[in-house]
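Quick one, T. Sequence first:
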Amino acid sequence: MYVVLGALVVLLLMQLTGDLRLARSEARGTPLWRMPLGRAGLFFAFLLLGPWLFVQVSGMEGILAGNGGWLFVASVGLSAMISYTWYRYLTWLDVFERERIWAELLTFVMACGSTLLVFPITAWLRGATGMALTGDLWDDLVYSVVAIGLVEEVVKLLPYLLIWRLTRQVDEPFDHLLYGSIAALGFAFMENTLYLESTRLTAVTGRALLASVAHMFDTSI
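C-alpha cells:
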C-alpha cells in the first residue's frame, strides 16, 4: 500500500514539476503563488503533508485524540479540501463552456444527501437475500460487488441523473463526466470524513490520491 501511494506521489510531483516549469516559462517574472497552477500545487502539497506532519511529527496528536469535536471539524475540513481540489481540476478540463455554479453545487449537495441511502439499501439487501461477508471467497465477492459496489454506484448516479433529466445543464459530452464526477466527489466527501475521523487524519493521503479519484473513475464509466 505504501509503495503504491509513494509511486503516486512521485508521479504527481513529476507532473506538477513539468507543468509548473512550462507555466513559468510562459509567464516570466510571475511569482509561483500568483499562478493558478502554482497555487494548486502548493495547496495539494499542504493537503497531503500538513495533516501527516501534524499527527506524526508535531507531537500534538493528543489534541485530536482528546477532543472529538475538533477531530470531526478537522475531518470535515480536510474532506472538503480534497473534494474542492479535484473539483478545480475538473473545471480546468471544461474548456468549452463553463457550467453554472448553482448546478454544480446542487449536484454536490444532493450527492452528500444520497450517500445516506447506502445504509438502508444495504440493510434491505442483506435482509432480502441473506448476503453477508462470511469469509468465503464467493460469498464475499458477491457481497462486495452487489451490496457494496453496485449500491454505491447507484447512489452516486442519482444526483447526476436528476440534473441531467430535470435541467438543461448537461448539454455537451463532457458534462456527463463532469456532473458524474462532482456527484462522486460529494459521496467521497461524506466517506472521507468518516475515514479521516476514525484514523485521526492519518488516512488523508490515501483518501486524497486513491479513494476520491477511484470514485470519480468508477462513476464516469
